[in-house]
Each structure stands twice: as C-alpha cells, then as structure tokens.
Amino acid sequence: MQRKIYLDMHSREEAQRLFWSRFGQRTTEAETIPSRLARGRVTAAPVTARFSSPSFHSAAMDGLAVRAEDTFGASDDTPRTLRIDTGEAVPVNTGYPLPPDKNAVIMIENVLLADDGATGVIRAPVYPWQHVRKVGEDIVATELLFPTGHQLRPADIGALLTGGCATVRVRKRPKVVIIPTGSELVRLEDYPDAPPAGKTIESNATVLAGLAEQAGAEVAITPIISDDFATISRHLQATVASEADLVIINAGSSAGSADYTVRIIEQLGEILVHGITIMPGKPTILGVIDHKPVVGIPGYPVSAIIAMEQLVVPLLARMQGVHVDPPATVQAVLAKDLPSRSGIEEFRRMIVGRIDDRFVAVPLKQGAGAITTLTRANGMLRIAAASEGEIHGREVTIELLVPRPQAERTILCTGSHDLCLDVLGDLLRKQDPAYPLASTHVGSLGGLMALKQGMCHLAGSHLLDPMDGSYNTSYIRKHLAGRDIRAVTLVHREQGFIVPKGNPKNIASIHDLFGEGIRFINRQAGSGTRVLLDYELERHHLDPDAILGYDQDEYTHMAVAVAVLSGKVDTGLGIKSAANALGLDFVPLVEERYDLLLPGELFDTPMIQAVLTVINTADFRQAVEALGGYSTRETGRLVER
Amino acid sequence: MQRKIYLDMHSREEAQRLFWSRFGQRTTEAETIPSRLARGRVTAAPVTARFSSPSFHSAAMDGLAVRAEDTFGASDDTPRTLRIDTGEAVPVNTGYPLPPDKNAVIMIENVLLADDGATGVIRAPVYPWQHVRKVGEDIVATELLFPTGHQLRPADIGALLTGGCATVRVRKRPKVVIIPTGSELVRLEDYPDAPPAGKTIESNATVLAGLAEQAGAEVAITPIISDDFATISRHLQATVASEADLVIINAGSSAGSADYTVRIIEQLGEILVHGITIMPGKPTILGVIDHKPVVGIPGYPVSAIIAMEQLVVPLLARMQGVHVDPPATVQAVLAKDLPSRSGIEEFRRMIVGRIDDRFVAVPLKQGAGAITTLTRANGMLRIAAASEGEIHGREVTIELLVPRPQAERTILCTGSHDLCLDVLGDLLRKQDPAYPLASTHVGSLGGLMALKQGMCHLAGSHLLDPMDGSYNTSYIRKHLAGRDIRAVTLVHREQGFIVPKGNPKNIASIHDLFGEGIRFINRQAGSGTRVLLDYELERHHLDPDAILGYDQDEYTHMAVAVAVLSGKVDTGLGIKSAANALGLDFVPLVEERYDLLLPGELFDTPMIQAVLTVINTADFRQAVEALGGYSTRETGRLVER
C-alpha cells in the first residue's frame, strides 16, 4: 500500500489562482464559421457590417409613395386628390423600394381609394421621409456590430446576416478529452441487467462531458482504462499529444494503492496542486503536461462535479474569452444545524423553497458518493473554510442551481417518509409542472418541529396517541398550541415486519424480535414508526434493550428494507409498500393513518391547492393502491379538529 | 390593393389564451432514447431506478476492512495490532467491495503499518459500518429518480446511469417548420457582395430557428417562397401534412397587397387571431390547419422575435410539459420620457446598467425594423396597453435579456457620438470581458444632463466655448455646478463637411452651404457639432434659415454620412472618420477636442479604471489613428479643472 498523502493542500482560491494564471489568459485559436451556425459561439474579433440595412430607401408601411411636398395643405376641409394612374402616387408594400422621385409614404389606412384605383384622396399631409426606412437606418456598412468576446444569441445571427456577414470569426470550442480510469468500472450498456459483483457503473465521464459541453467545449470520452500505471501513462501521453486543449483523468486522484494519477502527471509533466481544502472534491489534481492543463478529477460523483465546476468550467469560459459571473444567490433561513470542520470549505447540497416571504434552506445529506444529493438539490451552501459551520435558524447565502422562480415554487415537504409522496410529486408535476415537490425525511415529530418553525409547507405524520387511538391531533395540540394547523389524510397504510423473501427466521410477532441471534434494525427517535414500536413493546411489557440492533437506526422505510435485503439484518419495522418495492416479504402488525399537516395560512395558496387537487384525483388513489399495503378510503379528507 | 385590415385585434393575453388553450395541453409524444444523449430533454414518465447504488457494501475510504468488534478497546494507551497476513484486516481502496465477514473500514491514515505489511497498529476503535458505503446508500432500486416533466441536467444523467437506466422516456422535441416567404427576399449566400437592388437579405428564418431550438424544438427551414398565393398555399398544405408539430410562415402576415398568409390559412383551416395589440408584433396571425398550430409571424425582425417569444416559445415549452417562468426583472430608473399609444402594449428595447446603488434604463430607438435595437439591448420594458407611457425618472420594471450580473457590469456611455467609442468598447472587452460598453447618443449637452441626473457612467462631449476656445469646462461649470465631474481627453478630431466622392458640388467652405440647390443635413440641437456649426455661422454673420435642410437633422455622424452617400443631401457637418468609413470625401473645417466626462465618485471604481487603462494603451491609440481624422496627442490626459 504505497501512500503519498497530499502534503501541500491548497485552498480553492489558491488552487484557482495557480491553475488559471497558468492557462486562463490563453484563449483558443480563432476560426471562421458560417454565421448561420454561430449561435452560442464567442466572437474572436470585432465584427463590422459589410452592408447597410436597409440598403435602399424603402416603404415602412403599406400605402402610397409620394413627394411630401405634393401633400402639403391637405386637411379635412381641403382634401387633396392624388393621381395614381399618372404616377403622382405609387402603391407600395412595406419593404418595397421607394421610387427615386418620392420621399414619403402615406399609410393606406389614410387614403380613400377610388373604385378603379386611379386616384386616392387624403385629408392630411405627410412630412418628408415620413414612413420611409432610410438607407442605413438599422445598420451602416463598416459599423461595429459586435465587439470581441461577444457570445452570439439568435437575434445576433440576424444582425450578422443583415449586415452581410455570411461568416464570422469565433473562438474555437476548447477540446476536452476525458479519460475514465478504474479496474472496478464497467459500462452500463455492457451489463444492462446488473453490474457484475464488486463492479461499479461508470457514469462520471458523461456527467463531466455534459458540464464541459454546457461551457462551450467539444468533448471526447476515451474507453475505460484499467488501473495500470504503464497503460494510463501511455494513454495520457498520447491524449496530451493529440488536439486536446484540456485533459481530464477520472479518477485515481486520491491516495489509494491504485491511485496512479498524481505520479503519472508528475512523471510526464508538473503537478501544480494536489489536494484542495474543499469537501467534496479534496483529492483534485491540477497539473500541466506539454503546456496543456491536465486535471485529475476525484471519483466520487459529487466530488467530481464540484471539482469540475470550481476549477475546470471557469477555465473553459476563459479560454473562450468569456467573463464568468458568480451564481445567482438567495438569502435563506437554515432549517438545521450544519457543523463543519474548520479548514475545509464545504459544499452542502440544499433544497430551497419560499414559505411566506422568506426562503428556507433544507440540507440534504453529506456524502460525496450520493449523486442524488445533487439531482435533488436546487441550491448549494458553501461553508467557508474558516467557519465551524452554520446553525439552525441563521440566514445563509444559497447559490441557486435552478432559476430563482423555480426555487420560489418548490414545495418543501418533510416529516415522516412514505412512498406515496413520490406518487404525489409525480402526479403533481403532470397536473401542473409549476410545483416541484421536494421531500426530506426527519420523522413525524421532526415534521411537527419544522411546521412550528416555519421551515416546511407540508409535513407527513402518523403519530399514534395510545390513549385514544387517534393520530396526530393530540401531538399538534401539544407541540403547536395556538397554531392553525390543518391535517389532510393522505393514506391508511400497513406497518409490520419487513423480512427476507420466504421469511426464513419465521418472524410472526413482536415477540420474535427477541429470538436467538435475530438482528433488528430500528428507526430513528421521533419517527412515527419508532413511536409505534415503542408503544407495542410497552403494551407487551417487553424490554427494548434485549433486542439486538435496537440502538441501530435508519431514517426511511426503504433504508430498513435495503438492510433486510442486503442481509445486514433479519428484520425491521416498516410499511408494506417498501417491502413490496424490493420484493421482500411482510408480516403485518397494525394499520395506521398517515396525514399531511400544513399551516392554515398556506391552505388557500395555489401551491397547496394544487397538491390537494392531486390527492383527490382517482389517478392518485389508483397509483397508491397499486403500491400495495395502502387504503385510500379517507384519502383527501380534511381531519376534524 | 386588396385590403383586409385586422378587424378584431386581440390583446396579448387574449391571444395567448385562445392559442394555448387550443394546443397547450397537448404534449408531444414520448420516445425512448439513450440516457447518455438525454441532457436537456424532459422526462415523459416517472423514472425509477433499476439498480441500487452502491450495489454492494463498499469501502468509503482507503484503509483496512475489519470487523468493528475486533477494534473495540483500542486507544492510545492500549494500541491494538491487527493481522493483515491472516486476513483479520484486509487492505481496501475506496469503492472496493467490503469482504463479507467485515463490517467497517479503518482509514489508512489511522493505521501504523509494519514494514512488511503483515500487521497494522491502531489506536482508536471504529464502530460497525463506519467508512462503509452500504448497499442502496445513494439509490435504492425501484425508487423514484425523477418525476414526469423533469428537464435532465448533466448530474441527472449520472443518476440515470448509476440507477441502471441506460435509456429514458422523454418527450419528443416538437418539430417546427419555418417557411420564409417574400419575392423581395434573397439568401446572403447567393449574393455575398451585395444584395441586388431592391432586394432584402432573408435573416428571420435563422433567428426564429435559433429561438425554437433554444426552446427544445427540432427545426427545419424551407427554401424562400415567392409571394404567390397558389405556391404558398400548396407549400403550406404540404408542410402541415408532414411531421411538423407547428408551422411558422414569415411573413405576409400584414395587410399589404402581397400579404396572402391570412387568406391562405383561412382557406385551409381556421384563423384564431389576426392582429394583436402589441408593438412591435401587431400583424401576427394565429391559426390552425388540420389540428396543427400555424403561426404567421410578421416580417420586421423585431416584430418577428417578439411575436415568437410571446406566442410560440411558451407553447413549445408546454408541448414538452415544462413550466415557463416569467423573465427575471430589475427595477430601474428611466432615463427618458417614453410616450406610448394607449391600447397598445409596447415592448421597448433598453440598455440597463447600475450606477451606484440603482439601475438605470436607457431606451433604444423604437423601429420594428432595426434588429440592432435588440442586439444592443440587455433589457426590455413593457408599457402596458392601458398606459400612455412612462416618464423620465420614474422607476420601471425591466425584463432582463441577459443574466443580472451582466447588466450590473454594463457601462452606460452617452452624450456625443464618436467612432472611437466602438474601438474603446472592443479593446475593453479584449482586456477584461467583464465590462460591456453600451453607448447611446444624445449629443454633448444631453450627455451633461444625463451626468447631472445620474443616468450614465460616461458622457462624450466636445462643447466649444467660443469665448476662450476651451472645451467642456465652462459647460460643466454652468450645468453641473458643485458636482465633482472629471474629464479625460479621448481624442482630438477633425470636423468638416462630408461630401460625396470627388466633391461634385465643390464644397470648400461654410459659405458654399448657401449655394443654389445645395441640400444640407443638420445635427440635432444640443449636439456639439450643431454648436460648432451655429458658432461658425454666427462668426461669419450668416443666416441659418437660408440653408436648405438646416431644419432636417440626424443624431450621429454616421447618419449624416449615410445621407450624403445615399444622395439624399449634398453635404453635412461631421467627423472625418465617418466620411472615411463610407469612402466619402471630407473638407476639413476645424480640429476639436473630444472628452469623456464622468462623475468623480465613480473614478476609482474597477469599471472606470478598466476604461482608463484601455484608453492609455498603445493599442487604443494605434486603432484610433488608423480610423483617420484623429490625433491622440492628449489621449488619456485628465483635463485640469
């Protein structure tokens, strides 16, 4: 196990400066391309018009071309008759050339034409050059149409063509070559049914290519290269010698026994930076071989994307001579404490939504390995290296990953987890694409707290009151006293023991959790399912501590089901739909009610009304029933208070 | 001249409702495509994962895989030795499968390896599942990855591949066919040297295609069709019968004698709307043939773009099931009165910049024919149909055509016009792409007023004080008393009479303006050039009213030069570089100084410093001298106050 830990970590700012100062001033070459194909490209030189537009005096209106002097004196009292038959007035359509002896156009609406069209009567004069588009009114030949460094939009192409520029000098697209490395990687297309044991599907190369293409680059992806020093080295050398303007190796940038990237770049060229104090993204390598930038991008998908966006995308813009603006931001109230290690700049993926007049930011989980933390996020919080984190309720600056209006219309749903929320989110988008439903899971009690603090629009809850068998109402009364909280029943659902197919350990009741060697997985404190388990244990006078795994918990039904599926545990308490989804067996324990709770003051907003509309559709009920383990007999009912 | 004036004009809102309600609910069909090619596409169904990720318990760190239980009790005082040679601890790299009998990973940084690698010593325990990425930690098979209607970004493609989705169901791109019509139209490629007399270069089709492509459509453009009823009708029928989802005819949508579009659509199908109370864009036609939307887009380039963006682009989004957000806006102070006809919703192209802490919006000219009003604009002001206009100094809402930061860094330059400003703007972008220089022209005195009102960053000025021969200083003292205004000399330049090549009318001095039949073109009141002319006339005791054309004016030197070139006039007063640009001759009258004036409080801003840096480069001086008619002997000098 050869190791070379990054000894000289750089901050992001230092790394950017070191890297960009080396390459950032060097733009790509210029090339001449047809203007019709130039949308999105960046001008490499000032563009001047070759033709004037209009290139002749032309009629700006449909009407009669005249000498303005011939119309002077016309009025309601002294209408004037113009001779069309003699050419005193000449009918013209918009855009037609003005006859050489004419200098104005009368709008056809202002002419009373004789039936034979030989004459026209007017009751007002026109002034010279009225309703005439004069030569060069839009564009004068030789004038500057666009300065250097202008990114061409559709209308700009119109100006180029109109100005006689059939071709335009633009910066070449930077050529990026991406080399995926890793003996553990396989292509999904080669294993459509499942990756071989111990193998991982390569996905970063396509993601990095997409980011580079968005930044204006041309991208090639090489085949996957195994973790072999000589092969990678040979391959990298050949790529650098090719037409590439920038080479990306992914991954092997860390410090494992098969992480050759840093040694290879060192051997072929020079390492500028190895290790950046960012998280995710720490094991990034910035190097140079034969004067070309070579970047070792980390293997974890979120690390890869953040390293790419922080270091490479801005460089690609600079290579095209384009200024890079910082991302748009909003100020948002943080829904959770976020401790962070000092000395590391942390990038936390967030879901942002607007509740009343403020934005709320809900952090997603932290792992660099979870691509879904990025696909679900609509914002990013940077916790500065000097900071030890941010605290719940503080106003923080969120960089938006989507247009601001999209963040504004995002529905924040939290509390208890249920698979029906996905059905709801999907049907909601089908009914009205305006409202993305973003759900996070903190358990039923956590949802009540979020409601209390104004941190969510909706909270899923299934809190049983053992005293009277009611759900949620007594908890709302206790924790949200004085607040107008409405509860809408989403579903009734079966809770029970999720067990492997065939139920090999013969779990039949709560007593079986105490069987010899039975490994259990719990749900987190504050979740309705945990409340249910504890209630059932107490009701049967059973000792929780005697359950193997009572102190191990997961946050969702699906995570419990996965623990069972993977053989990590023998059973856990959860909903039937989660067992069904993974083809597991299920031992029912109780049926319970699952409600969506929401603040009364939001009830009449279009956002919430859109949600309630969907819940009351037959489509929703059918889709839910199809999951199994649900009853929709009270779905959509407003719970009486 | 057959006419059918639009009798039933619709408001934009009515037109949108009528049109979209007919087609807006109908999405395009779904198709299955490779996920790798799906960036930017919109999901047509919920996408669920086929594989879990990770698909096996894997090491989250480089290190030793162990049973956590074997590490309990390890501490600084009681270090524990793990046997690697016997398999008690197994070296693993990040991403490697966890051996089946292990349940945790110790980071390699926390292991003291023996030289022979046979053992490792640890000084702290790990807990079960520490540094392990558990099965399904990121994605659980069967879980929802994306709801219907999600537009796929690069990271999303990563989630699709990781989740085992090699293909994805997406909406087909809407197919748009654009039919350019007009006997006056030619293709630039067929006439690279100049359009034939009376002909116009077709450019709208490519612009409309670009807008449709940006909105996700696939676009085909047919050849140009002449203004012939039967030909257009046959062509339109064939196009509708093809695979097109939406057909655009451009133009013939107005009411001229060759405007057949409305009659043809009426004959083949149904007219929903003919004429919308917007300007530009009034003669828009919305129709339906064989259940397909057919749009008659007006011919003026700005009308075409506005009609396309208001009516068609949102429909293309709806066809893909995507929500359309309104454009981003800023509040800005209006730099000029903008009267507007009541009953018409007017779209005014604007240049927006930020001065100190407020945005300022400067209107560009109005004409629907001037594509450059759109290419130069970075914002749009809508004047509501009910409004009679907006007034100078009022705060108005500007829809941004560029990202907000780009508007924030736009330099507003106004006042007098000089060709050197284009050179400055180009070199500025080359030096620092951050700062677009947007210049408008209101004459020197207009520039002083703009400075006074905080409506510009820079104002070009060449106001001669006849008393002492000085430039600008006395005017600043008079009009901007008490204000800290700095003046930086940009150039000295030659003013004189612009005359046709060969000077056929033998203009030699100011006295020749009074020659028999000599047609003159003036500059607007308040321009430095007008001040100069009036001063020269007074000095020679000449009567302005005796000059033919003294009361006709233009706003720029280039417009004067064009008037001479087109034969509209025999001469006008202007700068030599304008004559040079159009290959005209020039009769020098005086040399004058042209300064850039700016508020002292902006002097040290990066924006202004960037401008001053460029002015002081040799590149700038060389480029200016190359235009002819300039001296740079004092260029960049701060004028003493």
From TrEMBL, chains A, B:
GO CC annotation terms, alphabetical: cytosol
Protein EC: 2.10.1.1
Keyword Electron transport: no
Main enzyme class: transferase
InterPro entries: MoaB/Mog-like_dom_sf (IPR036425), MoaB/Mog_dom (IPR001453), MoeA-like (IPR038987), MoeA_C_domain_IV (IPR005111), MoeA_C_domain_IV_sf (IPR036688), MoeA_linker/N (IPR005110), MoeA_linker/N_sf (IPR036135), PBP_domain (IPR024370)
GO process terms (BP): Mo-molybdopterin cofactor biosynthetic process
Keywords recorded for this protein, A-Z: Magnesium, Metal-binding, Molybdenum, Molybdenum cofactor biosynthesis, Transferase
Record-annotated MoaB/Mog domain positions: 177-318
Recorded superkingdom: Bacteria
Family the UniProt entry places it in: Belongs to the MoeA family.
Protein's UniProt name: Molybdopterin molybdenumtransferase
Lineage, opening ranks: Bacteria, Pseudomonadati, Thermodesulfobacteriota, Desulfobulbia, Desulfobulbales
